[in-house]
Amino acid sequence: ICHTSVKRTTALVRRIQGAAHEEKEKESFDNIKQLLDPCLVCQKRPRNGNIVHGKSAHLVACFRCAKMLRKGRSPCPVCKKEIHGVIKVFMA
Ligand SMILES: [Zn+2]
Ligand SMILES: [Zn+2]
User: Fold this and answer.
1) Which of 39, 72, 74, 83 reaches 20 to 30 Å from 22, CA-CA?
2) How many domains are there within the chain?
């Protein structure tokens, strides 16, 4: 009896882990959809100005607006970290 209940618990844990995995997949898909939105600042141009801070970056603005934020010493509009650099992104 004991052995069977352990087996059942393992199956349940697997099912929960599977559900969590699906949730993560959906989340990354939402991120891709966000990428296709226009620039957060001008709402016109595509998001191709990657705002770099440390070892991470936020892709929320076009290259022109991202450069403008950096020049004006504004922080990243998403996480408020200091902008270390702006990179022009090419989708390929
Ligand atoms: Zn812009
Ligand atoms: Zn940021």
Assistant:
1) 39
2) 2
